Amino acid sequence: MQNSEEFQELRKSYRGFTFPVSVAFFVWYIFYVVVATFFPQTMAQPFLGMNVGIWLGIAQFITTFIITYVYVKYANKNIEPRAAHIREVMEG
């Protein structure tokens, strides 16, 4: 199964989405940690009733939910149907 062309295409599709998104989110998270560590005065700046650090922390959660939503939509459209087809073919 792992050597089949369909499975390889499925893996390529999965990796083509998850790796770039994971790297982008990791960079975003590291940015947050670096700014909090080396520029605490920036994080302490007031902005719209709260400080910048709180807003960036909230943005981390929002980003997580958005990524999850987008991945579920992507997987339901591009991954799951192909995986089900491969499973059906393999199980006979």
UniProtKB/TrEMBL annotation:
Database matches in Pfam families: DUF485
Coiled-coil region: none
Transmembrane intervals: 21-40, 52-72
Domain of life: Bacteria
UniProt entry keywords in alphabetical sequence: Membrane, Transmembrane, Transmembrane helix
Keyword Kinase appears in the UniProt entry: no
Record has Coiled coil as a keyword: no
Protein name as it appears in the record: DUF485 domain-containing protein
Species of the source: Corynebacterium sanguinis
Lineage of the species this protein comes from: Bacteria, Bacillati, Actinomycetota, Actinomycetes, Mycobacteriales
